[in-house]
Design goal:
Layout lengths: L29 E3 L2 E5 L17 E2 L5 E4 L4 E3 L2 E2 L2 E5 L10 H10 L4 E5 L2 H4 L14 H10 L3 E7 L27 H17 L11 E6 L10 H5 L13 H17 L5 E5 L13 E6 L30 E6 L14 H13 L5 E5 L4 E2 L19 E2 L13 H15 L1 H5 L2 E4 L13 E7 L2 E7 L9 E3 L2 E6 L2 E5 L12 E11 L2 E6 L2 E8 L2 E7 L6 E6 L3 E7 L1 E5 L2 E4 L5 E7 L4 E7 L1 H5 L1 E6 L2 E6 L3 E5 L4 E7 L3 E7 L4 E4 L2 E4 L1 E3 L2 E7 L8 E4 L4 E5 L10 E9 L2 E6 L4 E7 L5 E4 L4 H5 L3 E6 L1 E6 L12 E5 L4 E16 L1
Parallel strand pairs: 1-20, 2-21, 7-8, 7-14, 8-9, 9-10, 10-11, 11-12, 12-13, 13-14, 26-32
Antiparallel strand pairs: 3-4, 4-5, 5-6, 15-16, 17-18, 18-19, 19-23, 21-22, 23-24, 24-27, 25-26, 27-30, 28-31, 29-30, 31-32, 33-34, 34-37, 35-36, 36-51, 37-41, 38-39, 38-51, 40-41, 42-43, 43-48, 44-47, 44-51, 45-46, 45-48, 49-50
Organism: Mucilaginibacter gossypiicola
Family: Belongs to the glycosyl hydrolase 35 family.
InterPro entries: Betagal_dom2_sf, GH, Gly_Hdrlase_35_cat, Glycoside_Hdrlase_35
């Protein structure tokens, strides 16, 4: 089955050294007055609520997860699973909670996590659930912040980790790994039982938050790579059974997991590269797609167009995406510098082309490999970074928020807030279907259910940029007639931009949003009022067409009524339509800029869900009723809150907001700081750094930009001489934070060591036959650390 996937997922043939990274070509031109047509009449999914009576479960609180033939439901309402991968074994325990709340603030409702068997049971029968292996604590923190956990315990996980996380001691035993042999399965059973016992009470059916479990990963497709560990005379290893044995293996794992106590209502499996029938009576088939696992080809990637072939299980069982690629593992042969637009393009084209309510990103939060207590370094093969597993993810290995984090957020919020109207929507092709990735054509698709739905548009080429598009027109044919979008305003979608356009959306009983040239992303309710937030498309003005017998009046701010039932709001700043209904409801349609939307967080203040706009990173802790805003290098903060509130407690000071239209605006400033550090340039390759603990006082963190020239930069704890992290050069400074190294910095310090590009080795023998030492051949410029720039990360704490 072909679904725009890269099936050679994570063992790529080394390519030429890619420096400085990946950049998209400039726009090739401009096109105007293009028209696109789609017929959504009589479209919509045929949902069978009784298709899968054995699926799902009921927890101790009486909540019910059930499944129909297309999606899951929670207490009878569509359940959107919007997940991001973050692996606790690859991240410091003391930073887990911060990572989870950042992912939640990014619009996710689920954390997906591999669990690596090799770290849990490094030696046969010796289990370790302490430190980074304390998966119970991780589940507890996810639950604390209202996040589901999608557990992926293997036994094998193809995650650029040594042997896919299988304990190396399997190589010295008589059984075949990843097989149906009893000798192997008994060890899997023992591991599953230990893990389930550790997580007792956290599986969803038992009242916990572990909503889903994935068994295995890319069975019979991804190799184990025994040759990384043993090198000589070893092949890649047994990848798994085929044919009927493939199906049998998953049945074994399902039974073992359930018997062990993994009481989750959802079980999944990776459905690409399969070599036998997929047991869909138990498992959700999941898929993935990566635009940048390696250097791009000379043509645009297939993920720049909407999928043309669906899963063969569509309409039989729910299907999903567990690996929507956001980046790539760094390695000597490829150093990713992934454009943020490519992440959104991948998510949109996969979701837009498949009926699903299950979308998971890999990775969403980067990490750092731990050391194996027996075997040491853990990369799957030698070309990978030994420590770093940053993946160029939306949240970096140091918890820094990248541009891709903000680029994806409105899409994630859209999936969560509009799940009910999306769940029964059928994929509908436009007449102008794009099949050729090189075609300079707008990629469009619709999802519709009984004449209502959404247009998805992508104007992105990752190699050959697509043209700017001005004055676009859509004709949506419904059973009641044709909806022309727009009717009056001008709609532009520029090169590299995307759009989600609603049509016939029910705002309230007998109040319809017939169309809007704006991307809806958030929906809040307060008392008897609804707030819908949209953002403008390529800075175009937003046209809103309303209809319905229940509309009493409409008032407009920062815009105008241009004809009966049609209003246009300015796209360059926030504007609003206020709709008063005859039955007493008030509906606000708010248009923000795209940049405002990307920096909008849905937060709960004083028990009320609100939208907070700030160009500073904002993370909510709803448990302790606090909101933390951080700012790298800038000590001034501004926040806009809607619905408006009178005051906020900021850093224990009561601050009154200023009224600005529908917003309350708050400004706050903290004292400016300069970071003092002791830097010793030992030689061109080595530089040591010390920082006194008091430099961290009052700050959230200290960011350090490491600007170097070389093949790789490694970070060591001088006191122990231990490698802590590494970074392959990709043309940009290495951006790290230092709080996790605070104790080391106060002691002997940290050492940055820059390595040259290695082209190989040469050896020779002397006249007496004694082998000389190997000599490395170096290439490129001599390694050097050009500068270290310390930046204070300021913070303010809002409480209520």
């Amino acid at each position: 089955m072909k679904i725009r996937l890269l099936f050679n997922i994570l063992w790529l043939t080394p390519c030429a050294l890619c420096l400085p990274g990946i950049t998209q070509a400039q726009s090739v031109g401009k096109k105007t007055n293009e028209s696109f047509t789609v017929n959504v009449s009589q479209k919509g999914l045929q949902v069978n609520e009784n298709a899968l009576p054995a699926w799902g479960g009921k927890n101790k609180n009486g909540d019910v997860v059930s499944a129909n033939n297309y999606y899951f439901e929670l207490n009878g309402k569509p359940l959107a699973i919007v997940a991001g991968e973050m692996e606790p074994q690859r991240y410091p325990v003391e930073e887990w909670e911060d990572a989870i709340v950042k992912m939640k603030a990014g619009g996710l409702n689920t954390v997906s996590s591999y669990v690596f068997w090799t770290l849990i049971e490094p030696e046969p029968g010796k289990f370790d659930f302490t430190g980074r292996n304390n998966i119970k604590l991780f589940a507890e923190l996810c639950k604390k912040h209202g996040m589901y956990l999608f557990l992926r315990p293997g036994p094998f996980n193809n995650s650029e980790i040594l042997l896919g996380g299988l304990p190396p001691w399997h190589y010295g035993m008589v059984h075949n790994e990843r097989s149906n042999e009893p000798g192997y399965l008994k060890y899997v059973e023992r591991y599953y039982k230990q893990l389930a016992a550790n997580l007792k009470g956290y599986f969803w059916n038992d009242g916990g938050n572990i909503l889903a479990v994935q068994t295995e990963n890319e069975l019979s497709h991804a190799p184990i790579n025994w040759n990384t560990l043993f090198e000589e005379g070893v092949d890649g290893g047994y990848p798994g059974p085929q044919g009927a044995g493939y199906t049998e293996h998953f049945e074994h794992l399902y039974t073992i997991a359930k018997d062990a106590g993994m009481n989750s209502p959802i079980f999944t499996m990776t459905a690409w590269g399969n070599t036998g029938p997929i047991p869909s009576d138990h498992f959700v088939p999941t898929y993935g797609g990566y635009m940048y696992l390696g250097a791009p080809d000379s043509t645009n990637n297939e993920l720049t167009i909407f999928n043309q072939e669906k899963s063969p299980f569509t309409g039989k069982v729910p299907v999903g995406f567990c690996e929507v690629g956001t980046g790539s593992p760094a390695r000597g042969s490829f150093r990713p510098d992934v454009p943020p637009a490519s992440c959104l393009c991948t998510a949109m084209t996969l979701f837009g082309g498949q009926e699903t309510m299950f979308l998971g990103y890999y990775m969403f939060h980067g990490g750092i490999n731990p050391m194996h207590p027996v075997y040491g370094f853990l990369p799957k093969w030698r070309d990978l970074a030994y420590m770093s597993y940053d993946f160029d993810a939306p949240v970096s290995e140091f918890g820094l928020l990248r541009k891709s984090y903000f680029t994806l957020r409105p899409f994630n919020q859209f999936l969560n807030n509009f799940s009910e109207s999306l769940s029964k929507a059928q994929v509908v092709e436009f007449d102008q279907r794009v099949k050729n990735v090189q075609s300079d054509s707008l990629r469009v698709i619709a999802k519709a259910d009984h004449d209502q739905g959404y247009i998805f548009a992508a104007n992105y080429g990752n190699v050959k940029a697509l043209s700017d598009r001005d004055d676009i027109h859509f004709q949506v044919h419904t059973s009641a007639g044709v909806i022309r979008i727009p009717q009056v305003a001008k709609l532009n979608i520029h090169s590299g931009d995307f759009a989600i356009i609603p049509f016939n959306y029910a705002l309230h009983q007998d109040v319809a949003l017939v169309s809007a040239t704006a991307w809806p992303f958030s929906h809040l309710t307060e008392n008897n009022e609804d707030w819908y937030f949209c953002h403008s498309l390529s800075a175009s003005d937003g046209e809103f067409v309303l209809a319905g017998k229940n509309i009493k009046s409409v008032s407009c701010n920062n815009g105008s009524k241009v004809k009966e039932g049609v209003w246009v709001l300015k796209g360059d700043r926030d504007g609003q339509l206020r709709i008063q209904t005859k039955d007493g409801r008030v509906i606000h349609l708010v248009l923000l800029t795209e940049e405002q939307a990307r920096h909008s967080s849905e937060v709960v203040i004083n028990g009320q869900k609100r939208l907070l706009l700030s160009d500073r990173a904002a993370v909510e802790d709803s448990v302790s009723n606090t909101l933390l805003l951080t700012s790298s290098g800038v000590n001034r903060f501004q926040m806009k809150v809607v619905p408006a509130i009178n005051s906020l407690n900021i850093n224990s000071q009561q601050v009154t907001g200023k009224k600005d239209g529908i917003f309350s605006v708050f400004n706050f400033q903290v004292p400016e700081r300069k970071i003092r550090m002791e830097v010793d340039s030992i030689n061109t390759e080595k530089t040591s750094v010390k920082i006194s603990p008091d430099q961290f006082d009052g700050l959230d963190n200290i960011e350090l930009k490491v600007d170097y020239l070389g093949d790789i930069c490694r970070l060591f704890d001088i006191g122990q001489g231990m490698l802590k992290d590494d970074n392959f050069y990709n043309g940009h400074p290495w951006d790290i934070t230092l709080k996790r190294y605070k104790t080391m910095l106060a002691g002997d310090g940290l050492l940055f060591r820059v390595g040259p590009q290695l082209l190989g080795v040469e050896q020779g023998k002397g006249s007496n036959g004694i082998l000389f030492d190997l000599k490395t051949k170096l290439g490129g410029n001599p390694p050097s650390l050009k500068s270290l720039t310390a930046i204070p990360v300021y913070k303010i704490k809002i409480t209520w």
